[in-house]
């Protein structure tokens, strides 16, 4: 896996992933940025959310669950001093489907957290991570 970061101007940077996708990052105005794009740490949080959501949906589908939607809200706290690593991250999943088995949803989230989601497992080295979930019956 690879990624190239190029400085655009001010505190705006463009990332090109190894698969050829472009992503813009920018800094806060107080740091010289113009707030035109997400901050790098926001992208790390989004990456962890995307990683685990992917896992959960895949595990539920493979478990023959009729899942129709999945969202993950992440709330993070960072250290007060440098390096301002994540110290706490709360993952709240909302999983929608027909007749979803709570124990299967719980198992999918647990497997993602403990075995498959490289991003959240890596972040757990510095952050206390909690997982909560809500199951919504699809209409």
Automatic annotation (TrEMBL):
InterPro entries reported for this sequence: KH_dom-like_a/b, OsmC/Ohr_fam, OsmC/Ohrsf
One Pfam family, short name: OsmC
NCBIfam families linked: PRK10738.1 (NF008009)
Protein name: OsmC family protein
Gene source species: Parazoarcus communis SWub3 = DSM 12120
Biological classification of the source: Bacteria, Pseudomonadati, Pseudomonadota, Betaproteobacteria, Rhodocyclales
């Amino acid at each position: 896996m690879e990624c190239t970061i190029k400085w655009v101007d001010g505190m705006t940077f463009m990332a090109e992933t190894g698969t050829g996708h472009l992503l813009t990052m920018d800094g806060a105005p107080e740091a010289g940025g113009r707030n035109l794009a997400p901050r790098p740490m926001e992208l790390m949080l989004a990456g962890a959310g995307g990683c685990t959501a992917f896992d959960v949906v895949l595990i539920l589908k493979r478990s023959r669950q009729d899942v129709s939607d999945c969202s993950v809200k992440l709330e993070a706290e960072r250290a007060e001093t440098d390096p301002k690593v994540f110290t706490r991250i709360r993952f709240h999943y909302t999983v929608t489907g027909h007749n979803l088995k709570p124990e299967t949803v719980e198992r999918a989230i647990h497997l993602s957290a403990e075995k498959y989601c490289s991003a959240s497992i890596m972040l757990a080295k510095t952050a206390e991570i909690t997982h909560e979930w809500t199951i919504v019956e699809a209409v």
